[in-house]
């Protein structure tokens, strides 16, 4: 299963788990196609947008785990 950390870049996440896009849009990050945002770490993006990075990472990883479980059924 794919898991994210605060240090991983947004570009890498979108490449490996594009189904997480709504999480970034919800935080106010509407510039996902911008080259600068793709090189930004999750931790940095959360800081800029006033989001707790630990909570954000936990929510996405929980979502990915649930998605993976559904695929295996």
Give the helices and strands, then pairings.
Elements lengths: L9 H7 L4 H6 L8 H4 L3 H7 L4 H20 L1
Helix pairs in contact: 4-5
The overall pLDDT, averaged over residues, is: 89
Element pattern in H and E: HHHHH
Proportion in β-strands? under 5%
Q: Give the biggest sheet.
A: none
The residue ranges in which pLDDT falls below 50 over 5 or more consecutive positions are: none
Structural class call reads mainly alpha
Q: What is the first-to-last residue Cα distance?
A: 15 Å
Overall, the morphology is globular
As a whole number of angstroms, the C-alpha radius of gyration is: 12 Å
Please count the beta strands (DSSP E, at least 2 residues each): 0
Percent helix:
55-70%
**Count of alpha and pi helical runs:** 5
Can you summarize this structure?
With 73 residues, this protein is mainly alpha-helical. Helices cover 60% and strands 0% of the residues.
């Amino acid at each position: 299963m794919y898991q994210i950390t605060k240090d991983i870049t947004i570009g890498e996440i979108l490449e490996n788990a594009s189904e997480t896009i709504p999480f970034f849009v919800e935080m106010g990050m509407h510039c996902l196609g911008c080259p600068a945002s793709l090189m930004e770490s999750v931790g940095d993006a959360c800081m800029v947008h006033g989001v707790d990075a630990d909570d954000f990472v936990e929510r996405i990883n929980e979502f990915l785990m649930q998605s993976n479980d559904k695929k295996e059924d």
